[in-house]
Each structure stands twice: as C-alpha cells, then as structure tokens.
Amino acid sequence: MSKAGSESPDTLCDPLATFGCQLPWSVPAFAQSSDHVPMADPAFQFDPHVCRAILLGFAHARRVYLYGPHGSGKSTHIEQVAARLNWPCLRINLDGHVSRADLIGRDMLVVRDGRQVTEFVPGLLVWALQRPMALVLDEYDAGRPEVMFVIQRLLEADGRLTLLDQNQVITPHPAFRLFATGNTAGSGDSAGLYAGTQVLNQAQLDRWNVMLELGYPAKEQEARIIHARLPTLEQEQVRGMLELAWLCRQAHEQGELSALLSLRTLLAWGENLVLLEDMAHAFCLSFLNRCDVAERPLVAELYQRCFARELPDVGR
Questions:
Q1: DSSP conformation letters of 171-225
Q2: Angle CA(176)–CA(177)–CA(180) in degrees, nearest 5?
Q3: Less crowded by CB within 10 Å, the N or C end of the chain?
Q4: At CB < 8 A and 24+ separation, what contacts does 273-277 make?
C-alpha cells in the first residue's frame, strides 16, 4: 500500500447518498485514497440493482460474479464502486496467456547483496490476497482449466490459499474482496459470439455467493450516460444513436446480426462524432466496419430508418 493507504476500512459510506440504493446497513470504506484505488468517473451512472449486489461483496465479503454482454459496464461498475469507497482494486484478465505461475508465483533469479540467488516471487493472486484489495477476475469464463482450479481454492469457506511448493498457507487479508465478470453464466456460449469462453465447473460456480446478470442500461439511462460524457452532442443526435443501437440489438437477438452495438461502442461513436462532426463517418469507423460484409446492408437500412439518410459505401 502507498503511504496514504490504510490497512483496514476506517470510515463508513452511506449507500443511498453515494450510490442511490437503499440498504439496511452502512458500507465500510477507506477515508483516504491510495495508489491502487481506481479513478472516479463523475459522469458514471450507477444502477442501484447492480450496486446492491456489488456492495454485498464489499460490506460482507460476499464473492460476486457479474455476467452479461460485452460493454454493459460489469467491470466498470465494480471499479467505480471501489473508487467511491477508496478501496484498492486490481483487475486480472483471465485470457489464454495467464498461467498458474502468473497467479501463484515462481522461482526466479534475483540479486541479493550483489549475488544472484533463486527466490520465490509471488504472483498477482498471492500479492493481492495479502492486502486490502478488491480483486476483479475479468473474462472469468475464458480462464484456462489449471488457472480455474487455483481460483477454486479461494472459493472455499475460509478462502485460504495453500502454496504447495513453499509449504505455506496464505490467509486472506480481512479487507480482501473477490469479484469476477464474464460474458456467460458458466454454461458456454451457444450463439458463438464470445469465442474462447468455457463451460465452467458447476461445483466452482456453486461457491460464488452472489450472481447477477447485467444487461445494457435502459434507453433513458444510456442517454444520461452519453450526455454526461459528451455534453456537446445534441439531444436529437443522441436519440437517433440510441434508437439505432436498440434496433441493432433486436436484430442480434433475432439472429440477423452477429455484431452487437454495446454501450462502449455508443460512447466511441459519440467521441468520434465530436471529433469528425460527421455522423455517418463516425458510425462507420465505430461499428459498421466490424460488421460482416453480408450484414452491412441491414445495418445501413436501420441507419436510414433512424437518421433519414443513407450510409455511404456500404458493402465495400
């Protein structure tokens, strides 16, 4: 921890005043920020339903798994809650390159007193476990099997981690918290939208105390998010963007469109629009160009319906 950090929560947060959700208990927090506390986004719009689940994790050490489509704000919600609580936070993306040694640690050559010696260097999981830290495991349903079985040890009742190579048992810090995010509920991806996701071990899923599906925000909430991030956009522009996003999502649900226009993509579209001052060009750069060529005429038709003008060069 940095010199400004505390080893334990030393104040309380009012969840209604801070997050807009009513809870029968206060939430512990840190009075001062430290190096690993995420930066607060003043424009972020909290969903009280999602905050309630996340705050269960922070206040009562419940293990929380959020799942849903990409760009819906799963990891960002956790980070922004941590930012308001001044709670240090570490995100680990469980892609195919993260190994057991990355999490647990490995023997490495280090220099001690001018001599090279072999020493055990702890991995990120061991490092975080011993600190007041909210650990967020991103892409949880894409983790390698050997990595998932390491994590399963943390999901036991006491959460202690045994380092067999070191004959050592790591007891979690009292302010350690565990979260995970994924695109699926652990049953795989039958639609083929999220390549690399795995069917998760049901015994492991059973050890998560809180599971919540997080979809895209309601249209009115998305509008507030866009206006807060990009206040120079006109209301009519935002209305058309949101209408197109929801039409594209409906087409995706009906199997007519493979790409999904997420909230993240909406914000990228808006940012490009501010820079280019060209709605159609910004849309092509943000979303259309990653759609399948065979599906672009459908997207162009939806765009014309929302903005009463054609997209240029569709299908090229």
A1: PPPTT-EEEEEESSSSB--TTS-STT--BPPHHHHTT-SEEEE--PPPHHHHHHH
A2: 140
A3: C
A4: 273/233, 273/237, 274/230, 274/232, 274/233
In a domain, 314, yes or no: no
Question: Residue 302 domain-assigned?
Answer: yes
> Which tokens belong to 21?
């959700």
Mean pLDDT of all residues belonging to the chain: 86
Question: Pick from 181, 196, 213: which residue ends a domain?
Answer: 213
| CA–CA gap between residue 273 and residue 265 (Å, rounded) | 12
Would you place residue 164 in the very low, low, confident or very high pLDDT band (cuts 50, 70, 90)?
Answer: low
Residue 157, pLDDT above cutoff 70: no
The token pair at 45 is 């719009």
Worst-scoring range by mean pLDDT, 26-40, 109-123, 189-203? 189-203
Residue 177, beta-bridge partner list: 134
Q: 14 is written with which tokens?
A: 């009012």
108 vs 48, residue with greater confidence = 48
Q: How many structural domains compose the chain?
A: 2
Instruction: Say if pTM beats, i.e. exceeds, 0.85.
Output: no
